[in-house]
User: Fold this.
Amino acid sequence: MKNRFIQVILTVFIILFIWQFSYFIFQIKNPLIPSPFQIFLALKEVTLSGEIFPHILYSLERVLVGFFMASFIAISLGLFCGYSKKIGSLLEPLVEILRPIPPIAWIPLAILIFGLGDRSSYFIIFVGAFFPIFTNTFFGARSIPKVYINLAKTGNIGVYSYFKNILLKFSLPYIFTGLKIGIGMAWMSLIAAELIGAQSGLGYFIQINRLLLRTDKIIAGMIVIGFLGLLLNQFIKAIEKKCLFWRTENDRAD
Amino acid sequence: MIELINVSYSYKDSMRKQFEVLKNISFKVKNGELISIIGPSGCGKTTLANLIAGYLKNKKGKICENGRDIIAPGKDRFVINQENDLFDWMNVEENVSFFADNKKKVLEYIKLVGLENCKRKYPYELSGGMKKRVSIARALAANAEVLIMDEPFNSLDYSIKEKLYDDLAKIWKKTNKTIILISHDIEEAIYLSDRIIILNNRPASIKKIFNVPFSYPRNSGLKDSVRFMNIEKQIKEELIHL
Assistant:
């Protein structure tokens, strides 16, 4: 783990060094192509002035609201569709038609229906996160071993107990896979939504700096986006590790 | 008492063709008896176990437990499977108590199967033999009258099997449960059972029922006796000439 961290840091450092070195060698004067050092200064500027923090908060709020809504509905629906073969086979084709539509394609419709603002962003994030979480949950619930179903029948435990103690717990590894993909999709959808239809947030921050030709700040904003995406993913991984303590190291995908 | 009267079962395959798996099977299992059902692979032993458990519908004939028709699964008939059927997210105590009628007796059953030091362990921390013991404790805690054991010792190595045979026999005698053991291991069947039912090839019907004349407790030395080997030989011959 520690070695891997050092490897990553080393790779990033080498890339930055080559970039900075080429900047000097080729005497790049184009202000639209910043050097790593200029990006570092821009990052320092937006952090120390506090300019970027409100945008981070707006973006985080949007992504968390949209992601939680998507998670709640997708997990509930996925478990239910996995439990009931009839409902599953009715809904699956509909989901398969909607799933390939990229979240960005929903933006014009969202702006027309919800207008410019948070509600459009929530909707786009919801659409982005919903499908990976739903399909993974559905797949997990559907692949529950026959022995567990038979045991539940034998024990006559009731639907609520079956959902809570067996189906949900069995599907958790699949749900977490969906959540990890979903949070990435939510974050990507958020930035796309903010680039087009918002008056705040990191997407908006990038868009404003495009108009001001501040590529250093644009890249600084992109770095913040990447870093926050990584943090959210790590946060879900930490919850996963806590919830799935009963899985052996061999069972884990990562 | 479990009683099967002219039980037949068929299913439709992927080509919607009707396949007969069991044909006119009739036998009785007395309360507190341990019987084994053996037969060639794929003859329908598991189907028979599933019918007795109540998992399968649309059978012909009748299966009764103490005079009542078996039409659905119930806690009175608990299946112990060949594969791991423990809930991986529950520890030993939680697994055993999940279906328990009397939660106070859970520890008693865990002790009975010899796992009192492992009650906080999760299935991934247990060996194959220990998992089987938990399954047995769970069935006992559910207050099942009949244990249907579908090749439960299949994936275990020889030494663990030997120990489990003796432990199962002790638990059986102590609790006086009815046990239906599905097996393909002739030695295991003779060593454990009161009677052995031999099934034909598919569609399976009863070829012969053997009474095992040995008293309990039995020990592994019995397997070297001439009488034991004679019964083993007879059963082998029956299976060869199916």
In short: Chain A has one domain: 53-253. The CA atoms of residues 140 and 252 of chain A lie 15 Å apart.
